[in-house]
Design goal:
The protein is α+β, with helices and mostly antiparallel strands and 139 residues long. 24% of the residues are buried. The chain has one domain: 3-Layer(aba) Sandwich (Aminopeptidase), CATH 3.40.630.30. The protein is built from three helices and seven strands, in the order βαβββαβαββ. Helices cover 20% and strands 41% of the residues. Strand 3 and strand 4 form a beta hairpin. A seven-stranded mixed β-sheet has the order 1-2-3-4-5-7-6, sandwiched between helices. The chain binds coenzyme A (COA).
Length: 139
């Protein structure tokens, strides 16, 4: 993990990784969000290569991140953790009271490590189980 940079990126730059990691079997356009143009988008570059992306939206002091993905060949190397820590620090500085996500149930163990708590709001979409997870922030 020598050369790591986290930068804000244009929304359309997230689309390739979103598609290839999260929904490779769906049409490319399915990973685009109505709200993308209103969001903030962060990319982690490892040795100059875009490796992990996440998108951030908010209503007042309640922040939501969506479409968090690390390229498959780079998963489990700590990049996602670096990016999520960056995001948490970013929203804290912005005055967030809460950060939440609609997590894939398969990823809840990852979010637990950062203090996110599962709610009872569960759903199923594209055959994938989701649960809303929240991180309360003390601002
Ligand atoms: C979930 C995801 C973004 C995590 O990114 P990553 O770069 O692989 O995560 P890291 O390597 O930084 O993992 C940090 C820690 O979380 C653990 N972890 C990663 N993914 C996990 C998962 N799905 N379940 C439980 N633990 C997980 C790692 O083992 C590591 O543990 P350690 O600190 O004990 O070594 C990535 O695996 C991914 O893109 N998955 C497919 C798409 C997806 O599910 N996105 C989330 C949608 S809600």
């Amino acid at each position: 993990m020598s050369d790591i940079q986290i930068e804000q990126i244009r929304h359309d730059i997230t689309w390739r990784i979103r598609h290839e990691v999260m929904y490779p079997d769906l049409p490319f356009d399915s990973i685009k969000l109505e709200e993308d143009k209103n969001g903030m988008h962060f990319g982690l570059f490892a040795n100059g290569q875009l490796t992990s992306v996440v998108s951030l939206f908010h209503e007042g002091t309640v922040y939501q991140f969506r479409k968090f993905a690390t390229i498959v060949s780079a998963q489990g190397k700590g990049y996602g953790a670096l990016l999520l820590n960056h995001l948490i620090n970013y929203v804290k500085t912005a005055g967030a009271e809460k950060l939440w996500c609609n997590a894939r149930v398969s990823a809840t163990g990852f979010y637990n490590k950062f203090g996110f708590i599962e709610t009872d709001q569960r759903s199923l979409s594209n055959d994938i189980d989701f649960v809303i997870m929240e991180l309360q922030l003390n601002n």
